[in-house]
Write a structure and sequence with these properties.
Layout lengths: L3 H20 L6 E5 L3 E3 L4 E6 L6 E6 L2 E5 L9 E6 L8 E9 L2 E2 L6 E6 L6 E5 L3 E2 L5 E6 L6 E6 L7 E4 L4 E5 L8 E10 L2 E2 L6 E5 L40 H52 L1
Parallel strand pairs: 2-9, 11-18
Antiparallel strand pairs: 1-3, 3-6, 4-5, 4-7, 7-8, 7-9, 10-12, 12-15, 13-14, 13-16, 16-17, 16-18
Membrane topology: Single-pass type I membrane protein
GO cellular component, one term: plasma membrane
Family: Belongs to the natural cytotoxicity receptor (NCR) family.
C-alpha cells in the first residue's frame, strides 16, 4: 500500500494536467475581405482576421505559405488586417487565418475565397420577360459570353447575397421566382474559367418589382432555384457576423483545473497520512500485545 499511494498521487496529477491541456482549445477566428471578396485585376484588398483580445499574433495562410501580423494595441483590439496589393492571378484563391495566445494556436478559420475579376471578355446580361415585373411573376437572367466557357456567376450588388453559379453552355439561365420586392436590385454576371478567376463584370441590369408590396415576402433571399446554385462562404462578408468574439474564459478554466488538481493532491495526501497513522497504531498495539505476553509468560515461569 505505501508504494501504491505515491503512484496514485502522480497518476492523478498527471491525468488532471493532461486533461486540462487537451481541453484547452481556442475557438476559430472570423475572416472576411474588404471592400469585397471580388477584386478587380490590379486592385488592392484587405483580409481581416478576428480572434480575441488575448491574441498576440495572427497568421494568414495561402497555398502553403503564411504571413504574420501582430496587433498594434495588444489587449485593446481583437483583429488585424492583411494587405494584398495588387491583386493578381497568383494571389487569387483560398485563404485561412489563425491566431495565437501564449503558446496555443487557434483552429483555422473558415476558408475565404478571393476572386480576381477583369481577366476575360465582358459578358452580356439580360432579364426576361423584362426589367420591370409584378410580384409573383417568374424572371430569368441570361448571361452570354462569346469566349468559350461553361461556368457563369450572377451577383446581386449592394447586399450580403453571394453569387449564384451555373454550369452549362452560353447563354447561362438563372431563373428565380415568384419574385417579391426583396428581389429588387442591380445584377451583374461573370464568366469563369476556374473558381477564382472571373471575367469583367457585365453591364448592370436593374430589376424592378412593382405593385402591392404587402403581399410579398420581404424575407426572401432572391436566390435562383437550381441545384447548380453555388454560395461562397459566409465568411466572405462582414455583414451578419458577430462584432466581437466572446471567447471562453480560459483563465477561469485553468484555475478550475489547477484547483481540481490540488483537491486530488490533498485527498491523496490525507489518504496517505491516514494509512500511515493506522500503520503506527497497529504497530503500537502489536508491540503492547507482545509486551503483555512477555510479562504473562514471565509470571508463569516464576
Amino acid at each position: 500500500m505505501p508504494s501504491t499511494l505515491p503512484s496514485l498521487l502522480c497518476l492523478g496529477l498527471y491525468l488532471s494536467l493532461r486533461a486540462g491541456a487537451q481541453n484547452q482549445t481556442l475557438s476559430k477566428p472570423l475572416i472576411w475581405a474588404k471592400p469585397s471578396f471580388m477584386v478587380p485585376n490590379g486592385a488592392s484588398v484587405f483580409v481581416w482576421c478576428q480572434g480575441t483580445h488575448r491574441a498576440i499574433e495572427y497568421q494568414l495562410h495561402f497555398k502553403g505559405l503564411f504571413t504574420l501580423e501582430r496587433p498594434n494595441d495588444p489587449g485593446l483590439t481583437n483583429k488585424v488586417k492583411f494587405s494584398i496589393q495588387p491583386m493578381t492571378s497568383s494571389t487569387a484563391g483560398q485563404y485561412t487565418c489563425f491566431y495565437r495566445t501564449g503558446e496555443l494556436w487557434s483552429e483555422p478559420s473558415d476558408p475565404l475565397d478571393l476572386v480576381i475579376t477583369g481577366m476575360y471578355d465582358r459578358p452580356t446580361l439580360s432579364v426576361h420577360p423584362g426589367p420591370e415585373v409584378l410580384p409573383g411573376e417568374n424572371v430569368t437572367f441570361s448571361c452570354h459570353l462569346e469566349t468559350a466557357t461553361t461556368t457563369f456567376f450572377l451577383h446581386k450588388e449592394g447586399t450580403a447575397s453571394r453569387p449564384w453559379r451555373r454550369v452549362g453552355n452560353s447563354p447561362a439561365a438563372f431563373s428565380m421566382g415568384p419574385v417579391t420586392p426583396a428581389h429588387r436590385g442591380t445584377y451583374r454576371c461573370f464568366g469563369s474559367y476556374n473558381e477564382h478567376m472571373w471575367s469583367f463584370p457585365s453591364e448592370p441590369v436593374t430589376l424592378l418589382v412593382t405593385g402591392d408590396a404587402g403581399v410579398a415576402d420581404l424575407a426572401s433571399t432572391g436566390q435562383p432555384s437550381s441545384p447548380d446554385s453555388w454560395e461562397l462562404h459566409l465568411s466572405t462578408t462582414k455583414k451578419g457576423l458577430r462584432k466581437d468574439l466572446i471567447p471562453w474564459d480560459y483563465t477561469a478554466e485553468n484555475l478550475f483545473r489547477v484547483g481540481l488538481g490540488l483537491l486530488v493532491l490533498v485527498a491523496l495526501m490525507c489518504l496517505l497520512a491516514h494509512t500511515r497513522l493506522l500503520r503506527k497504531k497497529t504497530k503500537r498495539a502489536s508491540s503492547q500485545e507482545r509486551r503483555r505476553r512477555y510479562r504473562w509468560q514471565g509470571a508463569l515461569d516464576e
